[in-house]
Every structure is written in C-alpha cells, then in structure tokens.
Automatic annotation (TrEMBL):
Family membership noted in the UniProt record: Belongs to the PPR family. PCMP-H subfamily.
Source domain of life: Eukaryota
The DYW domain, residue ranges: 666-758
Keyword set, alphabetical order: Repeat
Protein name: DYW domain-containing protein
One Pfam family in the UniProt entry: PPR_3
Species in which this protein is naturally found: Lactuca sativa
PROSITE patterns (UniProt xref): PPR (PS51375)
InterPro entries attached to this UniProt entry: DYW_dom, E2_motif, E_motif, PPR_At4g14850-like_plant, PPR_rpt, TPR-like_helical_dom_sf
Gene Ontology terms describing biological process: RNA modification
GO molecular function: RNA binding; zinc ion binding
Coiled-coil ranges (or none): none
DNA sequence: GTAGGGTTAG
C-alpha cells in the first residue's frame, strides 16, 4: 500500500489515472486513501456513481471519508445526497466534526434551522466557519434579524461574516443597511465589492453598480461577470457587449458564466451578425462549453431567427438536456407561432416545471388561441400537484380571459390567485385591469387601478385603452393628466389610447389639443386624428390632414376615412379611400365589405353586386366571423351556417319567432334585414357576418329574463347587425352588450351607446 | 470547511 503516493495522485489530471490506482490497490478499510481519492474525484469532476463506489468500498467510513464525500456532493449541487449521507453519518455513530456542519447547513437550505440546536449542543458554534454558516443561513432565508444578532455577538469577525451579512441585506431588499455595513467594514475585499455590484444591479440601479465596479481596485472574473449579468438581465444589451469587449482587451479570461451573459445579451439584440461573431470567438478560443452556455446559444439562435441551428443544439445535447433547454426550445417554437412543434416537445418533455407550462400557456395566449391557453391551464392544475401556477401563469390566463371577454372565467382565475396566495406584481395587476376592461367592467378595472400601490406606464395605458373602448373620453383625458402629474411620460400607446377615446366620444377640441402636444406624432396618431375628424363629420379636413402627413399613410388611415365616409354617406371619399386600401392591402376582405356596406346602406345594390364580383375575380375570401357567449363557465361559439351547437334547433326556431314578432310590431324584416334568412349565405356574406344573431338567440334561451346579454365578436359591428341589435334590445326589453375587436356597444331600448351611427 | 457571478416563461 505504501507505494500509493499522495503527491502523485494530486498531480493526476485524468480520472483514468486515478482509476488505475484504485484497481491496483485494495482499499478496504483504508479510510485515509478513500478520503484522499474522493477529494480528487471532486477536483476532477468524477461522476457521482463512480465516486460513491469508492466511498462504499470502506466498511466503516470515518469522519474524514464522510466529510469528503459530503464535500463532493455539495460541490456538484447534489443537496439531497448531502442530506441523506448526513443521515447515514448520524446513524453510523460517527461524531461529526466542525468541518461537516458548514457543508451540511448549506445543503439543508432553509431547513438548516433544525441544525442550529444540534450545533449548540455539540459546542461547534465556537468554530468560526460553523458560526458563519449558521449566520449565512439566517441571512439567506430569514429572519434577517437573527443573522444580525449572531453577527453582533461575534467577538471577532472574518471578512466572510461581513460579506454574508451584506449580501443578506441585499437579498431582503435592505439597501440602506447593506450600504451602512459596507462603509463600516474594516477590510473590504473583492467579494464585498462584487456583492455591492450585484445588489445595485438587482434593484436596477446600474449606474451605481457601475460606480462600484469602476472604483474597485482588484477585479476578478466574477466581478466582471457580476457587472456583465447586471447589464444583460436588465435589458442593457449594448452596455453588456461593450463591457465584454473591454474585458477582453483588459486580458481577463472569460469563463463559462461570462459567455452565458454575453450570449444572452446577444439574444436580446436578435442580431444575427453579432451572433455569428460570438460563435466565431468561441470557436477560436476553443472553450469548453457547459450546458448553460449551450442553452444560451440555443436561445440566441432561436431569437435571431435560426430555428434549425437552435434545434441542432437541442438534438446534440442529448442526455445533457435539462428543463431549461427544453423550455428554451419550446418557446423558440411558440415565438414563431409554431404551436404544433412546441406542443409536441411539451408532451414529450420529462420533468416539466412551471416555466414549461407557462411557456405553453403564453404561447397559446399570444397566438390568438385563448381558449387553448385556458384549457392547458386547467390541465396544469388538474394533473400536476407538485407544480404550482405562479404569477406568470396567471398573467397569461387572465389576459386570455380578457381577450375572450370571459368574465366568469376571469373571476374564477382571480379566485384561484387569492386562494393560492399568488402575489401579484405590477404586471399582474395590469393584466387584471386589462381583463376587466375587455369584459366591460370599467368600475372594477378602475378599482384595481386605484388599489395598486405602484403603477407603471402600462397600467395607465391599459386603463386608458379601456376607457377608449367604452367611449369614455373624459376619463381617458383625466387619466393622462394624472399620469403626467405622477411623473410618468406618456408613450405612443398612451396617445393612441386617449385620441381613440376622444374619437369615440366626439371630443374634437380636446383631441386636437392633445394631438398638438405629442412630441413626435407617428402614423398611428395621424390615423386616430383622421378617425376623430371623420367621426365628427369633418371629412374634408380629414382628407386634408392625410395629404399633409409627413409620412406615407398606412391602411389604418384610409380605413378610418372609409368608415367615416360610410357613416356620412360620402361616396366620393369612400371610393377614394377604398381604392387606396385596395392598393395597400389587396387581400383584406374587410375593405371590400366596408365599401359594399356603404353602397348597401344607400340602397345602391348594383354597386354592391359589382364589389362582390370584383372580390370573386381577385379571389378575396371574406373571413368568417364568429361570436360567442359565456354561459355557465363555458364559451359557446357561433359561426354563420354552422349548426353544430347542441341548442342549434332551438336557436333557429327562436330566430323564426322573433321574425314573426317583428312583423307584428311593424318592422320590415327584409329591409332591416335583422332576421333575414340565415340560409341566404350569399347575401349574408355581402352585408356582413351575423353570427351575433345566433349568439343573442342562445343567450335569450339560457339567460334569465331581464338580465343583460353579453356577446364578443371578432369583426367590427357592421351597419346591418348594429341595427339588428337595436331592434332586438327593444323587442326583448333588455340590454345587449356587444364587444367587437376593441369597442363596446351597449344596446338599450332601441338605441346604441356608440357614436358610430349618429 | 466561509462570503460574490450563469440559461428558459409574462
């Protein structure tokens, strides 16, 4: 045994050399050699199974063997193995020494609190490292005041004690205390400074972080990485890349962590050229890449639009794939709208975590598949008991409910949030504001807004857009005033919202004043102004504004003019606008329909016919409209000509009855076309979609008498059905609320709340 | 044996 040489082992660079030694020598009951070999396994990153076999080869491991094995597990982050092995240690009757506790405390995480008493009993608290570990545990997991108490009780402190305390304060958001300790600390080291950089980065104060970075005397690669990741995680991609270049020219060798940060900044920029140059550098330097770097690269390729390269990395990673790798690939697919590929991966993925579910839910929600988003959320809470939805999940779900106008579902989701004590941040509350606005409940939307302790620009924009959809111009104007008073700078969305609100309430003076106040109005703001002028009947001014625009008008500009021309029956301008639209977007059927509706509303059926023929020649297909009603927590969807709904027969029967009833009260059914035969698809197609009639009938069938009827539809409420809803509201004696893409129309007693058809 | 830096989802 004597020729097994400790110095020789410490020079080994490869596991195979170690392996040869182990085979040559019988290691039974030789704890010294076992401990030594395990410590080299740690150094050489040996596989856990291999290392454990060495440990197991001794019948009675002593405290050194245990310590080194624990160290090995701790080093690779196998915390459950540390905990189990510590259990073995206690059972085997070996007395743990002071060396064991810091390792074990770290792996126990917040449960290490149970070890505190243990330590006191064994008297190990006199050991400075054990003391530091206990204090660090309280600093990390709280209560932070316990950590401070231990800190104050220390007669002499190591730098590590100060550093643990400082980063503990940062972790608990106590900037002032962290800073105070920093100034009090007698001998600050590189770790102290790095902790300050990270602290300020995490509260998004990059300027101060950079101040500390520039001021520190001695920097190592970790300090550079701290600054770099501060930039990259807060969206300062330019700064990150600049700092990285500086790092290279300062001759600091980047490590894997560096690459991860830089690559992720490059992903954010989505710049393929930059991506290529980074990959070139990686190849030149011939660096070892771990799975973090690979995943970052995968994400970078995906965000730069190279899905094949991303998938190639994914495939090549094979057994080295982890949950993050899978998630990155899944969202790569959802990002481009390839939900099928995303779903395929998702279904195959082992060990899904909350991010996997969130990616899939958000993927559906952002690609217009709100119903699917909610379905998969239901599946999530049904089949995975160990994965809890978090705020991100709920933001997607709530926003999906908003898009659907599904109030019952939205309330259910909110109840879920409360019952599961999910904390909401600003964006969580913003999604609630969005949902209630979209569901027509502005009171609740406002209540949530007022309840929020902090707002951001999006909070204001969401509520303003809600007011706009409800035609509440005054509230929108009040809100932009409050916004400025609170010190928020309105952005382009804010102005679009307020202008739209003015437009929907006919506030021409206020709108014009606001338009003047926009620092750099863009094409969308011009479109809003054209819409506003059009709605108040100043169509010629609208056309003049278009001619004066400093940029090329887009479809929205002419669309507004066309719509106004239709309402005001200005054939000349309508035809002008329509012709421009046909040039810009020849395949958009909506424009043809608008034009033909204009003709129809003036009884010019010949022209209607002409447009219809033109559509056929060009090959434009009218997109089918759908409407739905939320009933009993379920969404009931209706499409013209589709009779698959279970109550279909009753619905059509009711439609006939209503038609009779109308004749009795004196409406000309054919003229008003309210209940025109839905089988007449050709005419149906020309004058607009009437799926909402089916939806209304369903709602009449299932809802209580006297209650209001709420419908969501995916196309603009057209002239025809607008009239139909007015009449129906009178006939039925109740409110009908229709939400088309972003407008609310409240029909009551034969009138509509909106200003479209004055 | 202690303290500081990393990839994915809204």
């Amino acid at each position: 045994m004597s020729h097994l040489n400790a110095t020789a082992i410490s020079r080994f660079k490869h596991l195979t050399q170690l392996h040869a030694q182990i085979i040559q020598h019988s290691l039974h009951n030789h704890n010294y050699w076992v401990s030594l070999l395990i410590s080299h396994c740690t150094r050489l990153r040996a596989p856990p199974i291999y290392t454990r076999r060495i440990f197991n080869s001794t019948d009675q491991p002593n405290v050194y063997a245990f310590t080194n094995m624990l160290k090995f597990y701790s080093h690779i982050g196998a915390h459950t193995d540390v905990i189990t092995l510590f259990g073995c240690l206690q059972i085997s009757g070996v007395t743990p020494d002071a060396f064991v506790f810091p390792i074990v405390i770290k792996s126990f995480g917040k449960d290490a609190i149970v070890l505190h008493g243990h330590v006191l009993k064994t008297g190990h608290q006199s050991d400075r490292y054990v003391r530091n570990a206990i204090m660090g545990m309280y600093a990390k997991y709280g209560p932070i005041c316990f950590a401070r108490k231990l800190f104050d009780e220390m007669s002499e402190r190591m730098a590590a004690d100060w550093n643990s305390m400082i980063s503990g304060y940062w972790r608990w958001g106590k900037r002032v205390e962290a800073h105070k300790l920093f100034t009090l600390m007698p001998e600050r080291n590189v770790i102290t400074w790095t902790a300050m950089i990270t602290g300020y980065s995490n509260i998004q104060d990059l300027a101060t972080a950079r101040m500390y970075f520039d001021e520190m005397q001695e920097k190592n690669v970790v300090s550079w990485n701290a600054m770099l990741s501060g930039y990259s995680q807060n969206g300062f991609a330019e700064e990150a890349i600049e700092l990285f270049n500086k790092m290279i020219s300062s001759n600091v060798q980047p490590d894997e962590t560096t690459w991860v940060s830089v690559i992720s900044s490059c992903s954010e920029r989505a710049d393929p050229n930059l991506a290529n140059s980074l990959v070139k550098m990686l190849n030149e330097k011939n660096v070892r890449l771990n799975s973090f770097v690979h995943t970052a690269l995968l994400d970078m390729y995906a965000k730069c639009g190279n899905l094949e390269a991303a998938r190639k990395i994914f495939n090549e990673l094979g057994a080295f794939r982890n949950a993050v790798t899978w998630n990155a690939m899944i969202s790569a697919y959802t990002r481009v709208g390839d939900l099928n590929s995303a779903r395929q991966l998702f279904d195959k993925m082992p060990g899904k975590n909350v991010v996997s579910w969130n990616s899939m839910i958000a993927g559906y929600a952002q690609n217009g598949q709100s119903t699917m988003a909610i379905d998969i959320f239901k599946e999530m809470i049904k089949c995975s008991t160990n994965i809890k939805p978090d705020e991100v999940t709920m933001v997607s779900v709530i926003s999906a409910c908003g898009h659907l106008g599904a109030l019952e579902l939205g309330n259910w989701a909110l109840k879920f949030i409360n019952e599961n004590q999910i904390n909401l941040s600003i964006s969580g509350y913003n999604s609630l504001i969005f949902m209630y606005s979209k569901c027509g409940n502005m009171k609740e939307a406002q209540r949530i807004f007022n309840k929020m302790k902090q707002h951001d620009v999006i909070s204001f924009n969401t509520l303003i857009t809600g007011f706009a959809a409800h035609g509440d111009g005054f509230s929108a104007i009040d809100l932009i005033k409050k916004m400025k008073k609170d010190g928020f700078q309105p952005d382009r969305i804010t102005y679009i919202g307020v202008l739209t609100a003015c437009s929907h309430s006919g506030l021409i003076k206020e709108g014009e004043k606001l338009f003047e106040s926009i620092p750099t109005p863009d094409v969308d703001h011009y479109a809003c102004m054209v819409d506003l002028l059009g709605r108040v009947g100043k169509l010629d001014e609208a056309k003049k504004l278009i001619e004066k625009m400093p940029m090329a008008p887009h479809a929205g500009v002419y669309g507004s003019l066309l719509n106004a021309s239709r309402i005001r029956k200005r054939i000349d301008l309508g035809e002008f606008a329509a012709n421009e639209l046909f040039k810009i977007e020849p395949q958009n059927s909506g424009n043809y329909v608008l034009l033909s509706n204009m003709y129809a509303s003036m009884g010019k059926w010949g022209n209607v016919e002409r447009v219809r023929k033109e559509m056929k020649v060009i090959g434009v297909k009218k997109t089918t409209g759908w409407s739905f009603v939320e009933y009993n927590g379920k969404l009931h969807k209706f499409i013209v000509g589709d009779k698959s709904h279970e109550r279909s027969d009753d619905i059509y029967k009711l439609l006939m009855e209503l038609r009779k009833k109308m004749r009795v009260v004196g409406y000309n059914v054919d003229k008003e076309s309210v209940l025109r035969d839905v089988e007449d698809e050709e005419k149906e197609e020309m004058v607009g979609t009437h799926s909402e009639k089916l939806a209304v009938c369903f709602a009449i069938l299932v809802s209580e008498k006297g209650s209001s009827i709420r419908i969501v539809k995916n196309l603009r409420v057209c002239w025809d059905c607008h009239e139909a809803m007015k009449i129906l509201s009178k006939l039925e004696g109740r409110e009908i609320i229709v939400r088309d893409n972003n407008r609310f129309h409240l029909f009551r007693d034969g009138l509509c709340s909106c200003n479209d058809y004055w």
